[in-house]
Predict the structure.
Amino acid sequence: MWLKRVALCIGLSFLCFAFFTPKASSSVSTIYGPEIISTETINETPVIALDAEENAHIIWIAESDSLNLVYKMVDREGNVIIAETNLTPFTDPQCSHAKRPAMVIDSSGELHIVFHSFSHYTDLGDTEYAAETDLEESEVIYIKLNPNNYLTNIYLGQTNINDLIIIPETIISTNDHVKSRAPNIALNNSDRLHITWFEGNGGEGGTNMTVHYRVMDLNGGEIAPETCLTTTYNIDTGWGEPQVAVDSMGNAHIIFCTDNSNGTDAREIYYTMVSVAENGAVTTLIDETIITTPDDHASVRAQLAIDSQNMVHVIWHDKRLEDADTGSTEIFYSKLNPSLDDQDGDAADRTIISVISEARVSSNNDLGSNQKNIAIDRCDRLHITWSEDDWGDDAALMYTILNTADNIITVVEPEMVIAEDLTEIYPCASYSSSSRNPVIAISETNRVFRAFNGYHNDTGNYSLYLSILCTPCNFQVEFSLTKTSIEENMDTIKFTIELSEPTCQDVIIPIFVEGTARAGSDFFLHLAHPYGYPLELLPAGVFISAGSSSGEITVMPIDDNTVESDETIILTMDADNITNMDADNIINAAPGTNTVFIITIKDDDRKISGSTIFMPFFRPMDSSFPLYPVSSYAPPGLLFSLDYSTGYTPPLLEPYFTLQFLWYINMWDYLSQPWAIYY
């Protein structure tokens, strides 16, 4: 994996980069790909949604005889669960039916998809739609899928398309003579679907282009009717469709790009925030607010994401360096804190809500950085991907991870190449088409799924590629206990090593074993292997399997019947050198509070005053048995024999001392019940 190392010069208004030595290894590892996942000649606009099992659901537009909406499902390792399936099959395919899809997945694993089309398919049968109705202009279409139902019927030998589509094509924008295009969709934590699109018949530089917004339930029922959110600014149809994300309070945050006929000489990025009441009333909290500097340099193709603190993160590509002849088109970033505005419905002051403003996140080199996307993991880190090229064969798909805690940008993983020249295939980097944006989605265990277009130089075709990465957070690791004691004659003691979050891959935590107790003669140290192997001695480290946040250690003392002092086992973890299963990548981790665990093994072979212990009788615990004399004595810790009046001498027995001077002995071949020795 080729890496670029970068150093940051951070200011609230700008972020500069410089190169320095690449680090020896990265915590980013490749699980799958990049591998081609499409079959048609032209494939664009991929979208990924992840379910609770970390399966990836992927949709895109595939072009052969027509433009069809295609669906595929793979597991967390990239294995195909549902093969490439045409969601818009029609008997007469000669049409450009589906464009600009977007998708979310709800808590039950059902998919909600929107796209725009100039026609409407009706009468869904077992394998395809039976009829097509032409529309006056393009409208937004909604469909709902249930992959689980489809999989159930596949197992029964059925593969009907209507097993997958549970709500067929439904027009959700006003069916009028005005174009509705490029929808986007978000799902809040109360299962409301927030959908936005741009509306208007103008093209680039046209007029009366606005952002529209609607809220539905999970069955397509109306919660908030279609509402026009913008009045002043025209939306640019060619340089970025509206984007929507929803915060933890159910408020919708929307960004869009203006055209260049709004009083400025270049395109800029705007932001607005709305809330929806229980009765469906839409209220604007922050009106149209410019978040990029209004200058002569285009800021276009914005994407956004919201973190757990309801901060809004926006990225776009910007031509200010190219226009100034000081560089190329680069990726810029701003962090917004909407709570700093009074949210009275007026426009906000961008200098107040922009807690990080227009910071450059791609290297200023001879290569243009444009098509891009952003996602946020459970640790609120930013995962940013983009295309970089010189309009030739040197195109590459780039990736970085940033942390913006305390409104300071810190590089977690420096800018790196994840996919570059794949023989005659390279990632599409042309900034003239938003259909070629790469997409990125992150699971709860920080598996990163990315899909992108790969251009074939020899054929001119565009194939769809998928890669899966593992990018652990900087988790903390520590022992569940700091110290404990154990009797030498006890069976085992178990304790855990705990991570502050689940790991997305199998990891090994190195452990140093020290102390006065000796492994093999005083104790065994064991752990159940994550792959189901028998208990093994672990001199190197503790295994924690992917998806888990803890690993168990078992200490088994050895009762040696030797009078000795109490002994200690000191376990010290090496949190700085946690590796993946192949030990080829160091995992980012930080030591917690409890990194040393001390176990005291208490000796059970107690000395008793005097050189002998006289034991005149023993008998079974059942008092009906007679007393038998003992003809020998046993110093502590030694084996002894017992003579019976019958003349029978049983096998040698191992004594177990107690503070009550009462020994319980299980006879091997005699009466199979406990015996007591009295003295």
Remarks:
- Confidence is low (pLDDT under 50) at residues 1-25, 530-539, 607-679.
- The CA atoms of residues 223 and 278 lie 8 Å apart.
